[in-house]
Amino acid sequence: MKFDAAAEAEIDELYEWFQQNPKLPKEIDRILLKRFYKCMYGDIKGTKNLIKINYSMRNKHAHIFLERDPTDGDSKRTFDYADLVPLPGLTPEGYKVSCYRLVNFDPAKVNHTADTKAFFMISDYRFNMYDGAASTEADAEAFADGEVQIFDMDGYTLKHLSKMTFSTLRIYMAFLQEALPVHLKAIHIINCPPYLDRIVSIMKPFIGREVFKLIRFHTVSLDSLYEHVPRSILPEEYGGTNGKLTDLKAELLKDLSSKREYLMDPNHWKIDEDKGNTERRRWPFL
Questions:
Q1: How distant is the alpha carbon of residue 156 from its chain centre?
Q2: How many Å apart are CA 85 and CA 187, to the nearest integer?
Q3: Would residue 266 count as lying in a domain?
Q4: Cα–Cα distance list, 284 to 19, 56, 66, 97, 279 (Å)
């Protein structure tokens, strides 16, 4: 979607609506607002509905979406034992690819709620910027047309599975499927363990039918992954040419720290109860 003058005018109207809505925070970044709008293909009513769902779920589960710090001890522990890295560039279809894997296989390192919080911090950091490679002016202001996730199961054991918190899993899957301003296009599971069926049986009740259809299991080699994700997007650790995952992660963590104030600013995330009280005093029928 190209943001021409007419689309920019609608973004202006959405921003004004957002600021005046008593059930939303005080502020929203314009790029994030554009992302919601693009996700709903420019449908104003749909955009407003997705925004309301997003912030309602955030504030209902403040321990995951509001009470956070990308530099605190919990976040550091997550980033020390796991990679959660959006990869540079877009696929030929215009999709953004993210890679998730363990780098320390000790199950004791797992804190499912803290790890989920870190995942969504990275998402919010990412959604505050464009997805393009910035090689041209058009690319610099490009949004991905879809999201592709790669989960590397190497080192993952049943002990890791036992550390899963079902209440957190339910929140994670609901927010992923109902509230994120993206279109999930594929989930690739690589280095699948022999007990994969156990994992699937636990996860399946939380996954919508349409999302489950997007999951592809790569049980033999990465050759089948290359049919869907080009090597030019993949990091060197997976036979690609898009840099080393370790270097990409280091750059991500540096950038994430620079966004700390934004990620922790309640004006951008917390529903302002005073704002709502003021609106109700002015318009008692709301």
A1: 22
A2: 15
A3: no
A4: 18, 21, 29, 47, 8
For 220, the 3-state DSSP assignment is coil
pTM of the model: 0.90
Q: Is 148 helix (H, G, I), strand (E, B) or coil?
A: strand
- For residue 95, the domain's CATH number is 3.40.525.10
Q: Give a yes or no: residue 238 inside a domain.
A: yes
Please say whether the beta carbons of 214 and 185 come within 8 A.
Answer: yes
> Alpha-carbon distance 177 to 184, whole Å?
8
Determine how β-strand 95-102 pairs with β-strand 146-152: parallel
DSSP 111-154: -HHHHHHHHHHHHHHHHTS--S--SSHHHHT---SEEEEEEE-T
Taking the chain (286 residues) in consecutive chunks of 10 residues, what is each chunk's mean pLDDT? 88 97 96 97 97 98 97 97 96 96 96 97 96 56 92 92 92 94 95 83 84 88 93 96 96 97 97 62 36
**What is the Cα 139 distance to its own chain's centre?**
21
Number of alpha carbons in the 13 Å side-chain half-sphere of residue 162: 6
* Residue given tokens 């950091």 in the structure block: 125
